[in-house]
Please model this.
Amino acid sequence: MTATGPGARRGTRRLVVRVLLVQALTLIGLYLLQLRFGIGAG
Amino acid sequence: MHWIDWTIVGGYLAYVVWDGIRRSSRSKGIEGYFLAGRLMPWWVVGLSVMATQMSAITLVGTTGQGAEDGMRFVQFYFGLPLAMLILSVTLVPFFHRAKVYTAYEYLERRFDARIRSLTSGLFLLSRGMAVGVVISAPAIVLSATLGLSFPIAVALIGLPAAAYTMFGGVEAVQWVDVKQMFLILGGLGALLVILLAGIPEEVGIGNALRLAGATGRLESFDFSFSLTETYTFWSGLIGGLFLMLAYFGTDQSQVQRYLTARSVQDARSSLFMSAYWKIPLQAMVLMVGVLVFVYYLFSAPPLLFNRDHQTAVETAPAAEITAEYGALTARYQEAFEARRAAALDYSRAGRSGDRSRADEVADRFLASDARMRTAREEALELARTTTGRNPRDINYIIPAFVLGELPIAIPGLFIAAVLAAAMSSISSELNSLSTATIIDFYRRHVRREESDEHYLLVSKVATGFWGLFACGVALFAVALGSLIEVVNRFGSFFYGSILGVFLLSFIPFASGRGALFGLIAGMGSVAAVSVLAPEVSFLWHNVVGAVAVVAVGSVLSLDRRTGLTPGP
Model:
């Protein structure tokens, strides 16, 4: 597997998906914190 | 501080200098000194990237911002993960395959020597000044908090970092960064645990968060679109994306970190570490501040956290100032007692499930909180007029809390963590300033054919020079604005435009002439926006600069391509 081969591209794609997933979960967590405890929370 | 705390701080300082200097024997030649032979493991590079970005300003100023203003600052970093992803498939492979020492060296290969010298010169100017602020910011706070003289605080922070960077080179910088990162995380973790454990039992974490949330401190998202607001979702995502692209993609202090990685894949992985952890880490830093606010719901906070300013108003020669401050203190104290009673009532109502009672108490809580805020704002104004200086009280909240409220050893750990955060940024910046000076100017324009030993020697001298220069700037940087924003504001003037030049390099027909005039047009546009529309947030300056460079640079390159104007 080379740094530019299909295997490396697949690996990079996997990392990209993981990064986006972790960020999405972090932002959802912060948003839920705001909804649950923020101004006007029920 | 107790002698045990001083011992922890002294032990930390001695260890980092020893640890850095003992690596000096491994820096053979300038490739070893500046790039560690391009053999660093990805996780060391990744932690060094994070440590470089996390300065003492983050630890002291951002936590204070969390206490005063809440979580909304986290939006500033929303563009960062996206920036890391874009860089990992664009500039990172280019830099690595080009085997360059500096980002600007790549620009000479793509355009011409003028662009390289101009961008590298702008980096030296902006980063050289900014590193002074990175030293002075914590030095101001530590000198006021620990009772040290300001020059001694500057020397305590700047000189050890300069020493191990000068002798040890980039390998020392990065390995010390790793240890410093763990110390910073340890300090933050300890604070978080202490603060959570310190929430009164009858209140509980849920009610504590509800009380903080009622004051707006848990609002992490503001979806309004405004060019004048820095902390909104869209400013963070779009403006922040451009700032982070510029910082991680074109600022030598960051580029040099991942140029030391073994391979392109390792360099990418090191950037992904920040992409994963930066927002959660920043949220944790701000949450520490929010929990300090919660702590002061049940324990009386000082009216002014900056002790120097408090002493100045309490002992002012004019009797009306001391009388006014005394009256403000009484008002603040009365409002605090009312707020504490309301907070406890609110918790009791919350536990018994009495919603209408909780709503009624919440109104009382917010009213007394507003009274405290008004008294504090008036006290800050009084301090400002009495001393003639901005109190910047926000930066003293966490140091005052740690030194005044926490048990022995924790203050020592915290101060060591602040020093670690400062030094990890300073060392990377000094190392990159020296690299740009030697590689882009000395070896390129002054002495082109010297031995490796000669370049290694002048590189060490250059690092020492930049260390002393930064300490000198720090001594005069006191008059600059808010500690958190000043570094970013300074960079924003050039950052976007330099990013624009790198973006232009991907356009196949872009010429050196287009890049040069595009860069000038970009900086001119940012200057015009700063002067004509000062209300526009500095985050958008990066967008303006980058877009102007790409637009003007492309048009001028196109002009040359069609042969209408002779090129250089």
